[in-house]
């Protein structure tokens, strides 16, 4: 099992994985965007390669903050492990890579959101050290923006 940064040639497989995560025909992974993330020192799109196949992914991005001088915080998004490989340690390996990145960049914390119906995911995140009862997350999608257009 190898965790590495995603490459543009992973686009099709990432699209397949994201379709396990959400049922949305608008999901489209562009190789150029994967390359842009690869080139961005403040974001990492990690994938887990298991027996030659990409079986998991997670995106982590640093957010600038002023509260603790120049110490950023991180946001994790789009965490997915292929249903066929759950329970093999793929998710744990991804979060280990995320934590190494966050320690190396002096992050104050790592935040993530998860769909309220994904109870198995919540249990997994808590096993990774995340506290679901400490704060409450809120989301406002583009379709609800007052200037949506």
UniProtKB/TrEMBL annotation:
<protein>
    <submittedName>
        <fullName>GNAT family N-acetyltransferase</fullName>
    </submittedName>
</protein>
<dbReference type="InterPro" id="IPR000182">
    <property type="entry name" value="GNAT_dom"/>
</dbReference>
<keyword id="KW-0808">Transferase</keyword>
<dbReference type="InterPro" id="IPR016181">
    <property type="entry name" value="Acyl_CoA_acyltransferase"/>
</dbReference>
<dbReference type="InterPro" id="IPR050832">
    <property type="entry name" value="Bact_Acetyltransf"/>
</dbReference>
<feature type="domain" description="N-acetyltransferase">
    <location>
        <begin position="1"/>
        <end position="149"/>
    </location>
</feature>
<dbReference type="Pfam" id="PF00583">
    <property type="entry name" value="Acetyltransf_1"/>
</dbReference>
<keyword id="KW-0012">Acyltransferase</keyword>
